[in-house]
Amino acid sequence: MCRSFSEAPLSEQDREALYLAGTRGPSAGYSQGTEYLVLLDRGDIDDFWEIHSEATWREKNPDHEAVRAAPMIMIPLANPMAYLRRYSQADKSSSGLSRLENWPVPYWLTDAASSTMLILLKAVDLNLGALFFGIFRNEDRIRDRFLIPEHLDLLGALAIGHPKEASRPRSPSVVPKRSVASHYHFSTFSN
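Below the sequence we write its predicted structure tokens.
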């Protein structure tokens, strides 16, 4: 995750590659319920940051300016209604998934998260920097400013651009990385 960007714009070719990558992820029932709000205009990006991060927080975190320089913000959105429509169709209706409460796992979120990861990986392939971060405050104001419909779930946001030198310690320098083996359990679950 990159936390320091230059203000250099992304090429159209890189933007198109990122957009295409986001469409390559899984889609339960081929519901295709992932969408993105893309902010490229500096005024829109500045508005996003002003709404997303409050002044007192910005004062306490001046290194955040390096993140704000990113020339692209993408907000992944999941559309649960697309899944309900799809699973109401004849070939899927026997699944019982035509109602939100019947989904043991909300695949609209899983699919949107997978799509988001593909964009992050494509950014790495393109030698770009990218950061996924949560929208923990003022979601309603972000929705209002950018006219995001209420039926879409916000997953967070991506800042994407050309990386600069890191301006603060990264998480791996604070928290040790788990071993590969510690993530996998064979035959039975063990610690």
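The mean pLDDT is 90.
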